[in-house]
Amino acid sequence: MKVPQMPKLSARLKELRKEKGVKQIDMANLLGYTETHYQQIEYGNVNIPSLTLETLADYFEVSTDYLLGRSDDRRTL
Asked: Measured between alpha carbons, how far is residue 74 from residues 32, 40, 77 in Å?
Protein backbone atom coordinates (compact mmCIF):
# COMPACT_ATOMS: atom_id res chain seq x y z
CA MET A 1 0.00 0.00 0.00
CA LYS A 2 1.37 3.38 -1.00
CA VAL A 3 1.68 6.00 1.75
CA PRO A 4 -0.40 9.10 0.96
CA GLN A 5 1.84 12.09 0.34
CA MET A 6 1.57 15.17 2.51
CA PRO A 7 2.60 18.03 0.20
CA LYS A 8 1.61 20.88 2.52
CA LEU A 9 3.44 19.41 5.50
CA SER A 10 6.57 18.75 3.46
CA ALA A 11 6.55 22.23 1.89
CA ARG A 12 6.01 23.95 5.22
CA LEU A 13 8.71 21.94 6.97
CA LYS A 14 11.21 22.85 4.28
CA GLU A 15 10.19 26.52 4.38
CA LEU A 16 10.41 26.75 8.18
CA ARG A 17 13.72 24.88 8.29
CA LYS A 18 15.26 27.25 5.75
CA GLU A 19 13.87 30.31 7.56
CA LYS A 20 15.57 29.08 10.73
CA GLY A 21 18.81 28.31 8.87
CA VAL A 22 18.83 24.67 9.96
CA LYS A 23 20.11 21.74 7.90
CA GLN A 24 18.25 18.49 7.35
CA ILE A 25 20.84 16.61 9.42
CA ASP A 26 20.13 18.94 12.35
CA MET A 27 16.42 18.23 12.08
CA ALA A 28 17.11 14.50 11.91
CA ASN A 29 19.22 14.73 15.07
CA LEU A 30 16.49 16.72 16.84
CA LEU A 31 13.96 14.00 16.08
CA GLY A 32 16.28 11.04 16.59
CA TYR A 33 15.98 9.99 12.94
CA THR A 34 18.52 9.35 10.23
CA GLU A 35 19.07 12.14 7.74
CA THR A 36 17.55 9.96 5.02
CA HIS A 37 14.41 9.37 7.07
CA TYR A 38 14.02 13.09 7.74
CA GLN A 39 14.52 13.81 4.03
CA GLN A 40 11.70 11.40 3.25
CA ILE A 41 9.46 13.29 5.69
CA GLU A 42 10.36 16.58 4.02
CA TYR A 43 9.69 15.05 0.59
CA GLY A 44 6.23 14.02 1.80
CA ASN A 45 6.90 10.29 1.54
CA VAL A 46 6.57 9.43 5.24
CA ASN A 47 3.61 10.00 7.54
CA ILE A 48 4.82 11.12 10.94
CA PRO A 49 3.54 10.19 14.39
CA SER A 50 1.56 12.79 16.31
CA LEU A 51 4.37 13.20 18.86
CA THR A 52 6.78 14.08 16.05
CA LEU A 53 4.26 16.57 14.69
CA GLU A 54 4.00 18.18 18.14
CA THR A 55 7.80 18.30 18.47
CA LEU A 56 8.12 20.02 15.10
CA ALA A 57 5.35 22.51 15.88
CA ASP A 58 7.00 23.37 19.21
CA TYR A 59 10.44 23.68 17.63
CA PHE A 60 9.23 26.04 14.90
CA GLU A 61 6.75 27.77 17.24
CA VAL A 62 3.79 27.19 14.94
CA SER A 63 0.52 25.33 15.30
CA THR A 64 0.10 21.75 14.18
CA ASP A 65 -2.75 22.94 11.95
CA TYR A 66 -0.29 25.25 10.19
CA LEU A 67 2.17 22.40 9.62
CA LEU A 68 -0.58 20.19 8.24
CA GLY A 69 -1.86 22.90 5.93
CA ARG A 70 -5.22 23.14 7.67
CA SER A 71 -4.59 26.81 8.50
CA ASP A 72 -2.42 29.59 7.17
CA ASP A 73 -2.16 31.08 10.67
CA ARG A 74 1.19 30.17 12.22
CA ARG A 75 0.17 31.16 15.76
CA THR A 76 -0.15 28.54 18.44
CA LEU A 77 -2.98 28.53 20.97
From this structure: 25, 23, 10
Burial class of residue 61 in the structure, from the number of CB atoms within 10 Å of its CB (0-12 exposed, 13-18 middle, 19+ buried): exposed
Q: What is the DSSP letter of 43?
A: T
Digit-by-digit pLDDT tens for the chain (77 residues) are: 565 667 899 999 999 999 999 999 999 999 999 999 999 999 989 889 999 999 999 999 999 999 999 999 998 77
| DSSP characters over 47-75 | ---HHHHHHHHHHHT--HHHHHTS-S---
* 62 backbone dihedrals φ, ψ, rounded to 5°: -130, 170
φ and ψ at residue 20, rounded to 5 degrees: -85, -10
